[in-house]
Amino acid sequence: MMKRDQVLKILARHLDREIVIGAYSTAFDWIATRPGHPLNFTSVGAMGLASSHGLGFAIACPDRKVIVLDGDGSLLMNLGSLVTIAAAAPANLLHFVFENGTYEANGGHPIPGQGRVDFAGMARSAGYAAVYRFEDLGTFETGIKEVLQQPGPVFADLKVVPGADSPRDYAELYDPGKRDALRAELRRG
């Protein structure tokens, strides 16, 4: 298993101008990893919608990569998005699912089918263009370039455990100024 914060640090080294959509616990870790970036978008308060938000951004901004940092519990709330994303086939969408087997943001309760659900298999069956699974940090570090270069939609199932605690600053997470900064950045191109 990989620590989520370590995975995000590796990913951040390979990103610059991509829109990154983080959900729940991963959103807090991403903000700590790439603080103040105008293209960070947090999908909280709408469990399961990170993938749908990602699809919307990918369609609206076809010349910019869109990275979805989803949770396994969140994805279970919106499994239909896998088929919808595959049907729309946005070449610029990369969907990372941080699988820890729990609804972490809601107290760490186990997800249904914990340890039996095959998220990569579901994405493959739905029709994603490329599907990956990573359980080892070294393998992820050597494979991330390939993942990011594939035409999408791309899906990566990341077997993780929580890492270092990130600040849980809800005022920052919900700051409307962040949405304004994102819109301004997208208008600039």
Largest sheet: 7 strands, parallel
CATH fold type = Rossmann fold
Rg, rounded, reads: 15 Å
Count of folded domains: 1
List the uncertain runs.
none
Distance between the termini: 37 Å
Describe this structure in words.
- GO terms for molecular function: carboxy-lyase activity; magnesium ion binding; thiamine pyrophosphate binding.
- It comes from Chelativorans sp. (strain BNC1).
- This protein has a single domain (2-188), classed as Rossmann fold.
- The chain is 43% helix and 22% strand.
- The chain has helices at residues 4-12, 24-33, 50-60, 72-76, 80-88, 119-126, 137-149, 170-173, 176-188, and strands at residues 2-3, 19-23, 40-43, 66-71, 93-99, 102-103, 109-110, 130-134, 154-161.
- A hairpin with a 5-residue loop joins strand 6 (102-103) and strand 7.
- The longest helix is centred in the C-terminal third of the chain and has 13 residues, at 137-149.
Give a nutshell description of this structure.
It contains 9 helices and 9 strands.
Descriptors:
7-stranded parallel beta sheet, TPP-bd_CS, Rossmann fold, 189 residues, globular, alpha/beta, two-stranded antiparallel sheet, single chain
Fold topology:
Blueprint: E1 2-3, H1 4-12, E2 19-23, H2 24-33, E3 40-43, H3 50-60, E4 66-71, H4 72-76, H5 80-88, E5 93-99, E6 102-103, E7 109-110, H6 119-126, E8 130-134, H7 137-149, E9 154-161, H8 170-173, H9 176-188
Parallel strand pairs: 1-9, 2-3, 2-4, 4-5, 5-9, 8-9
Antiparallel strand pairs: 6-7
Helix pairs in contact: 1-2, 1-7, 3-5
Organism: Chelativorans sp. (strain BNC1)
Protein name: Thiamine pyrophosphate enzyme-like TPP-binding protein
Keywords: Decarboxylase, Lyase, Thiamine pyrophosphate
